[in-house]
Amino acid sequence: MVGPTLARLFSLEGKVALVTGASRGIGAALADGLAGAGARVVGVARSPAPRDPFRQPVRYVSADVAAGLDALVAGIVAEHGRIDVLVNAAGVSVSAAPDQALAAFDTTLDVNLRAAYAACLAVAPHMAAQGEEGGGSIVNVTSINSLVGFPGNPGYVAAKGGLRLLTKALAVDLGPRGIRVNALAPGYIHTDMTAASFADPERHAARARHTCLGRWGEVEDLVGAAIFLASDASRYMTGQDLVIDGGWTAKGLT
Questions:
Q1: Could you confirm whether 188 is annotated as catalytic?
Q2: Domain span including residue 29
Q3: Which one from 60, 117, 156, 236 is the annotated catalytic residue?
């Protein structure tokens, strides 16, 4: 049985969280997970509505994160007085013909990197200092693509690599204000973005073999890590990569 002290350590009760990319996949799972841990969660994405109903009380707002979230953030602050947690989970993977490669690269960086930075700029001033607990937590969802090179998608690798180092830069800049900034780096997770590989027997098996656990990840595998990073359980952790990849980046020649 979990004792009251441990339960409080991982609790998000009373905290206000904003999760981008919340219409489906990783973003939706993390929004649900934070709400289940007690946070008052606002989920945002471009889709008019989430693909599936949330299991927990999440308020969903349709907005283009690449266009900026200043108005949404102002509304949340007007209602709740602050924002304690920001999870940047919005992301795209754009494939293109060679003559459109540069445009695809720009789009990928705009959504996966620039929009995340814009969200941090919008939210950080409203993460009020809260004594020893700090002023808030920003969680940037990166990828193992931020740690190692992957073929055929340079824009995605560059954007996630940039987001990884942006995380460290913001940890330095925002640390004096009690704001922690960490990266959650998933491996291959079964989502709409990876559906084609997941459905292909050969590629599915090849990706599973890359891991130590012999399987793909599911979005639920990321929820505990996100709660840890958002909660006081990680209150002395900032500027770090929390890699949830089934051992992909640890595995050698086996």
A1: no
A2: 4-250
A3: 156
